[in-house]
């Protein structure tokens, strides 16, 4: 069997249903073999970066491994941003890149690049297949490594001859990688779990701090059980949003740089911080040695290298988050947290999320309307910047895998292709890309991909004609010198139409809901809504970089003096979203 | 406080592994003092001895990060007094007239050999632990070292 045929047969056995990519000289044999495999849909993207983000969005929305393909040289280098994005956020992707023939590797052949070398720091692992006899084992290992432990992207570099030469096909039934710790991992340390249970029992002001690890491990139900049994409030990182329903009375929403004011105060006051599948990122901790400074810290994580990386931990527990939480749940009873919950409730009322009404349309209002219209039930992809933080603040996330956003790397241009990937993975879901004009334009060519497949993806562009977050920082820290943060004017309606999408423009408040409703009803093609919003609006509250959590800018007190309107979030528990946690 | 630590790793013996290990260490801005790679009793496994300059917290990080590499089978920190270490040194020193006898004496004291000699210079060959070789180098400096090479540390736990 030809190497490419073996590859495709292995992809089929891994359950791959869709792959994203672009053919070229060095990967023609792979595309040819895929062309003859009816069970795998291959989506042609406009740019390879789009292919990587689509595989990423697919993986985030479904929990399955996303697959992308590119040819050698420029095709492979174009994937790099997408791989780095997935690596930082621990997203399982398998990237298949073409490579020049093994006999000319290293000769500066046409379209040759050292793909393994270039991608080494941004992949969990990578393979160069020189011999088709290794193909089946490598593909099997790649999917296994990508999806287990702390997930991440794995790259397979495929020289032309490895895909056209013949080998006998033997599918490896099991995987045995001696250097992969997940296999020889020590059993969960029950003693450590006992100590954590004791610390919880003795705490007066506990907080659970949940990250994406809860979602990756499918542990939202276990987290909810722990929170409800012990009566501990839950805050999440950006990537943890959806891991605990925000309509739950115990939800504190997001913490950190643009987290809620009362949430950050609560973190600053807590006496026990229980980190679950979160990595204490600098956008969360601010000044690391002042982060939750009165608290003993627990860290439950599958990756030993995450523990004690930025913040010193008192009770580390290494292991699968779901298993650890299950064990912990058998050992934890109600905590005497009534006074603490009352304090938090008081702070919640006293320091609500706030914005000042302006003459022009505000992006916060638009996102609130999308949240209402979808009842927090859509898959929301975002770009990176102000709109991303507003989406995190004003959209109420109630289910795991409902937010698809680039957290660690902060990749602008992620939103649209990620939304496309998510829609391919979940054809029945409502998928929105909440984007900024700066982010959107970095990959807007993928509208053509969405239109080609008649995807009902909805794009909401918060057009403020700026790199808004850059402009905000320039105003805040660079005395208002707007160095290259103002963007060129683009007619997004025409851009949408040119690509075969429905294009709408909204400039007034009363036009917001009708446009959203029209997008929700448009199911035969993508919709792009350009919301022309206030240019000078800032994203508040904010912890300035390197400052502790109780020194925030843009607080309720500051904003309310100048006509800020407190924004109450939807509070009733959503029965449906509770059910979906399992 | 920065100190020197010895890390012993068992790794897969195939191409690209050295680049993964050195890339990981350099990406986290550690300085590698020395790194040796050699075969072991198992031809599919190589042994790496890495001496890094780090503080204790960063050292734990680097060990954990090395453990994440799929091609790294085992990571072990070798603690002072719990391992034997050796390296090999070759030094060319100026050796005319009166210096010769002094150099021969130094060599003898350190159990070193004169590996090569001509009218003007000598090549001293010595094996030993890092500290002993450091002392030898100090002594040789008085005689003007024109070239010095060391293999870097190999180590074996006791």
Notes on the structure:
The complex is a heterodimer of chains A (582) and B (158). With 582 residues, chain A is α/β, with parallel strands linked by helices. Chain A has three domains: 3-164, 3-Layer(aba) Sandwich (Rossmann fold), CATH 3.40.50; 190-350, Rossmann fold (3-Layer(aba) Sandwich), CATH 3.40.50; 359-536, 3-Layer(aba) Sandwich (Rossmann fold), CATH 3.40.50.970. In chain A, 37% of the residues lie in helices and 17% in strands. Chain A has 24 helices and 22 strands. In chain A, the strands form five sheets. In chain A, strands 2-1-3-4-6-5 form a six-stranded parallel beta sheet, with helices on both faces. In chain A, strands 9-8-7-10-11-12 form a six-stranded parallel beta sheet, sandwiched between helices. Chain A has a six-stranded parallel beta sheet with strand order 15-14-16-17-19-18, sandwiched between helices. In chain A, strand 18, helix 22 and strand 19 (527-532) form a beta-alpha-beta unit. In chain A, helix 1 packs parallel to helix 6 (135-147), helix 11 packs antiparallel against helix 14 and helix 15 crosses helix 16 (386-394). The longest helix of chain A is centred in the N-terminal third of the chain and has 15 residues, at 48-62. The two termini of chain A are 43 Å apart. Chain B has 158 residues and is α+β, with helices and mostly antiparallel strands. Chain B has two domains: 3-78, ACT domain (Alpha-Beta Plaits, 2-Layer Sandwich); 84-157, Alpha-Beta Plaits, CATH 3.30.70.1150. Chain B has helices spanning 17-27, 56-68, 99-109, 130-141; strands spanning 3-12, 31-39, 45-54, 72-78, 83-94, 113-117, 121-128, 145-150, 154-157. In chain B, the strands form two sheets. In chain B, strands 5, 6, 7, 8 and 9 form a five-stranded antiparallel beta sheet that branches. In chain B, strand 2 and strand 3 (45-54) form a beta hairpin. The two termini of chain B are 27 Å apart. The relative contact order of chain B is 0.20. The model of chain B has no long low-confidence stretch (mean pLDDT 91). The chains are: A alpha/beta (582), B alpha+beta (158). Chain A binds chain B through residues 116-117, 120-121, 124-125, 128, 145, 150, 177-181, 303-305, 307-309, and chain B through 11-12, 16, 19-20, 23, 27, 57, 60-61, 64-65, 67-73.
